């Protein structure tokens, strides 16, 4: 449900979106703090009957302010690189509540994690097991770890964001025997303290059965491990991936429905396989920040090819949102300054990069559109700012956090000076 004020303008966090565009310029990422906190509340509420650790997946959107909010809400944090870990460190995040992921962590990233006392390192492969063992030996210390497993499950999402299938770069395969071998290796180590297992089947998932299947496969694996090694997992991390609504066709399950399915299948599987109840960990990213985000653009040139298509170009594009070009994502948008008007024509929204594939939205019905209009694209909170680039040397937009009629800049707009800051003349 969008909010339209008396002027017929879109409102975001109690502020006229046209005023936001005027004050902060466009393109502009806006985060509605109430929606973000409401999503977190829904997760906490949905899982309140069980012992759970909710770790926000920072890859969706991470800044110092976002770390502060996640911390304030009492969530843990999933990071996937030295850069994300550095952000958490600089924000003063409790590093015991950090899970460090990644399929190719470098020696310096692993060292940084060990030296800063990261709570869990989620080890992805045998190479990493060896690297970590050496680092721990040198530091004469121990580390809690989870092992990332590949459960062999199809998650029914875009192939680029599907991760749990057999043919995947991530994790130790359960089916090919790597997973049990990795568990035995970790259990033999004096430096590694194996607390549990992890899997993540993909992203933008609507089919909740995929999660029941995942939980079932993991619990069945834990029974086999117990029989073979005597070890019981204290923690079972099932990853994130719940999908969100981007357009009128999307019908994602509510967070509460997702929670119920996970709780039910978890209880069922623990019972069926007679395993010791591990603490459940989930890692939602998109479903926490995605629908809290909006991007505002100013409309510029318009090219009408009669009988073919009307291209409406905006002042951003694939540099601030590569998802349409990458995954064929389908976004919804309105004209923020004409939010109360009827749609009268079908247009396509193009970005300003020098690429034919730089499109934000193919075929959308909008009111009569002219240069200077403000386009607001919905659900851009996840994997937009975090995947943005300086392609064509475009400065990254600012990010503002809006709530109760107040707007705070949480990331400054890049300047041209920022663009050349690492360049060196020869
Ligand atoms: C290991 C891991 N955990 C959590 C997530 C978060 O996924 P999402 O943003 O879809 O909830 C991802 C990304 O897909 C991931 O790779
Ligand atoms: N970047 C993807 C999600 C990848 C999730 C990370 N494992 C997207 O925008 O949908």
UniProtKB/TrEMBL annotation:
* Chain positions with N6-(pyridoxal phosphate)lysine modification: 59
Pfam families the UniProt entry points to = Orn_Arg_deC_N (PF02784)
Q: What cofactors are annotated for this protein?
A: pyridoxal 5'-phosphate
Q: Name one GO biological process term.
A: lysine biosynthetic process via diaminopimelate
Which keywords, in A-to-Z order, does the entry hold? Amino-acid biosynthesis, Decarboxylase, Lyase, Lysine biosynthesis, Pyridoxal phosphate
Domain (Orn/DAP/Arg decarboxylase 2 N-terminal) spans 37-289
Catalytic reaction annotation: meso-2,6-diaminopimelate + H(+) = L-lysine + CO2
Q: What is its EC number?
A: 4.1.1.20
- The residues listed in the UniProt record as binding pyridoxal 5'-phosphate, with positions renumbered to this chain, are 241, 283-286, 383
- Residues noted as binding substrate in the record, renumbered to the chain: 286, 323, 327, 355, 383
The answer, when asked if Cell division is one of the entry's keywords, is no
Q: How would you classify this enzyme at the top EC level?
A: lyase
Q: Which InterPro entries does UniProt cross-reference here?
A: Ala_racemase/Decarboxylase_C, DAP_deCOOHase_LysA, De-COase2_N, Orn/DAP/Arg_de-COase, PLP-binding_barrel
Active-site residues (renumbered):
354
Q: Give a GO molecular function annotation for the protein.
A: diaminopimelate decarboxylase activity
This protein's pathway reads: Amino-acid biosynthesis; L-lysine biosynthesis via DAP pathway; L-lysine from DL-2,6-diaminopimelate: step 1/1
Q: Which domain of life is it from?
A: Bacteria
Q: Which HAMAP family match?
A: LysA
| NCBIfam families on file | lysA
> Entry's PANTHER family?
DIAMINOPIMELATE DECARBOXYLASE, GROUP IV DECARBOXYLASE
**Subunit-level organization:** Homodimer.
Role description: Specifically catalyzes the decarboxylation of meso-diaminopimelate (meso-DAP) to L-lysine.
The family note in this entry says:
Belongs to the Orn/Lys/Arg decarboxylase class-II family. LysA subfamily.
Q: What is this protein called?
A: Diaminopimelate decarboxylase
What organism does this protein naturally occur in? Calorimonas adulescens
